[in-house]
Amino acid sequence: MAPRGLAPALPAVPALLLLLVFCLAMLAPVAQAARRHDDEAPTSGGGGGGCSSSGTPPPLWVFGDSYADTGNLGDLGRELTHAWYDPYGDTFPGRPTGRFSDGRVLTDFIASAMGVPTPVAYKLRRGAAPGLLARGMNFAVGGAGVLDTGNFQRNISAQIDLFQAQHRTPSNRSGGGCDAGGVAVVVVSGNDYSYAADKDNSTSAAIAYIPTVVRQLREQLRRLRDEAGMRRVVVTNLHPLGCTPLFTRALNYTGCDPIANAGAAQHNAALQSVLAALDPANRTFLLLDLNAPFAAHVGASPAAAVEGRFAEPRRPCCETFGGAGGGYCGQQDDDGKRMYTLCDDPAKHFYWDDVHPTQAAWAAVAEAFRPKIREFLSST
Ligand SMILES: *[C@@H]1O[C@H](CO)[C@@H](O)[C@H](O)[C@H]1NC(C)=O
Ligand SMILES: *[C@@H]1O[C@H](CO)[C@@H](O)[C@H](O)[C@H]1NC(C)=O
Ligand SMILES: *[C@@H]1O[C@H](CO)[C@@H](O)[C@H](O)[C@H]1NC(C)=O
Ligand SMILES: *[C@@H]1O[C@H](CO)[C@@H](O)[C@H](O)[C@H]1NC(C)=O
Ligand SMILES: *[C@@H]1O[C@H](CO)[C@@H](O)[C@H](O)[C@H]1NC(C)=O
Predict the structure, then answer these.
(1) Domain assignment present for 236
(2) Ligand 3 pocket, 170 CB below 6 A?
(3) I need a labelling partner for 365 at 20 to 30 A (CA). Which of 56, 110, 238, 350 fits?
(4) Ligand number, closest to the Cα atom of 248
(5) Residue 93 sits in which domain range?
(6) Residues 6 or more apart whose Cβ sits within 8 Å of residue 25
(7) Cβ(277) to ligand 5 under 6 A?
(8) Is 328 part of a structural domain of the chain?
């Protein structure tokens, strides 16, 4: 996500972006090497051994980007992977863990709503307790998109490939292997659109990209049900992109960017149609609405009333000196001096950095979705 261009690039989103784009040449070999290494490793059996008996919650498989990542990006240095450096993780667990927040992220709250532990991040699977590996895995990685985003992170198709490679069980037999019956969560927060907007330096390019992204996402969702054998698939919609600090900074945090928000709404409407066509009875898919709970707190339009829980609904807790497009949370100068300011209490802020919510924000959003997830998963 990258803030680039003045005209608010439509979707801005989570993850590392700009910087990564600038540093592609340098990152590519590293990331590719890391990936190769990963993929050669024996699979950990994440889930295969966990034929759950009745009563045990189903395994949870997570696909997506930085809103859901719990460590998959890996540590490639402060500049490229901020989430592995302070002040990320200050609130929880008190040190950086690759989560793009001061604490817990969406995946943690979804797992909690389901009554299961946070699934192990794919990249960290070797150190995980075998018991935990049977309960699912998180493949989401910061910077990822439905399609490639130029960040050299696994797109969602590739994340699903990874799941399938780990589960060469006859997942085609519906109701077959132990893994059939799992719950998938798909979190798409807009990196595809940031990429499109940056590439052409235009918001209209991002908007024009919506049908392509949603069509590909539809295929990924279909695969999760028809090929990966997921019993339930929870898909998030886009938050009001134009209310992220990336956009609102230019307005001194007084309002949101209406064009970016309209783009998000357009994506959401298209996604809803796709789900209605794939699953008219709402049996397999749940559209998890992030847009409304975000908007309730950050104010989708300047005039919109804000609920008031967050004293600072739009100003990020971790604010860079760099101004629009420059600097990042956690940046230091050559002497190790901070090039950002940190708020006193992240719980008063909805946003942690330019695009990612605080733990307190995710907790507030989770209050809105927890009952929906529970009801959906308990329905037959
Ligand atoms: C991007 O577009 C804006 C206005 O549309 C223009 O002012 C700016 O110079 C452009 N930036 C680049 C890098 O082309
Ligand atoms: C997703 O990533 C895979 C593996 O890198 C690549 O082959 C494929 O073309 C990508 N798909 C899209 C839609 O970008
Ligand atoms: C599963 O289905 C896919 C496509 O429908 C097919 O290509 C693949 O060979 C099947 N795998 C098995 C193990 O039957
Ligand atoms: C931005 O808002 C702050 C208070 O919220 C105010 O002190 C400051 O003067 C404003 N800056 C501009 C450029 O309007
Ligand atoms: C499925 O869910 C959508 C909202 O996401 C709702 O509009 C529709 O009526 C539901 N369909 C059924 C059959 O319950």
Answers:
(1) yes
(2) yes
(3) 56
(4) 4
(5) 17-41+58-378
(6) none
(7) no
(8) yes
pLDDT tens-digit series, residues 251-284:
889 889 999 999 999 999 999 999 999 999 999 9
Residue 158 is assigned to a structural domain of this protein: yes
Please indicate whether residue 172, judged by its CB atom, sits closer than 6 Å to ligand 3. yes
Question: What domain count does the chain have?
Answer: 1
Cα distances (Å, whole numbers) of residue 230 to 47, 62, 220, 225, 275: 12, 11, 12, 5, 15
Question: Which of 157, 160, 188, 215, when mutated, tests ligand 2's pocket best, judged by the most ligand atoms within 8 Å of its CB?
Answer: 157
pLDDT in tens, 107-164: 999 999 999 999 999 999 998 988 899 899 999 999 999 999 988 899 999 999 999 9
* Secondary-structure breakdown of the chain: helix, strand, coil percentages, each rounded to the nearest 5: 40, 10, 50
Which pLDDT tens digit goes with each residue over 162-205? 999 988 755 444 444 444 579 999 999 999 999 999 999 888 99
List the structure tokens of 224.
């999760």
Query: Which band of pLDDT confidence, cut at 50, 70 and 90, is reported for residue 306?
Result: low
Show the CA angle centred on residue 311, arms to residues 364 and 113, nearest 5°: 5
Find the ligand nearest to 154 CA: 2
* Segment holding 106, helix H or strand E: helix 106-114
Helices 106-114 and 359-378: angle between axes, nearest 10 degrees: 40
CB of 341 shorter than 6 A to ligand 3: no
Q: Which of 195, 322, 310, 171 is nearest to 243 (CA)?
A: 310
The CATH number of the domain where 23 resides is what? 3.40.50.1110
Q: Establish if 280 belongs to a structural domain.
A: yes
